[in-house]
Amino acid sequence: MMKFNRIRNIFMKNKLIFWAALSGFFSIAFGAFAAHGLSKILEPQALNWIDTGLKYQFFHTLALLCLGCFQLLYMPQANVPACRYRLLNLIGFSWFAGILFFSGSLYALALGGAHFLVWLTPVGGIAFLVGWAGLIWLSLRH
Fold first, then answer.
1. Residue in 63, 62, 65, 73 with CA at minimum distance from that of residue 134
2. Rounded CA gap, 61 and 51, in Å?
3. CA distance 41 to 47
């Protein structure tokens, strides 16, 4: 029981893995709902928006999971500066914000949300790019 609690505490402290799990669950559930429930209701353009949102969400969910696993496995063993740890968190936060803004705005538009949400899509795209740029910078600094 002690070992299980220790493992659970490690994973709960790693918010990147939690966000990846949450996002992965939602992308599978919403993808299934869109494929089986919304395909007969929505226009093809709306289904394309959902498809694009799901692709970007799932790719970045996998990236978040990899980042979280890297943080979980590598960071406790190495003498890593706090700034590198913060940068990994910033990268993960940027990707998660990108999922919320980019994919979320596409889902909302597809489901008939307010048209002003179209302005959130590029904000999410920029958040994705900030995360990837942070990863590039981190890899060059290492």
1. 63
2. 15
3. 10
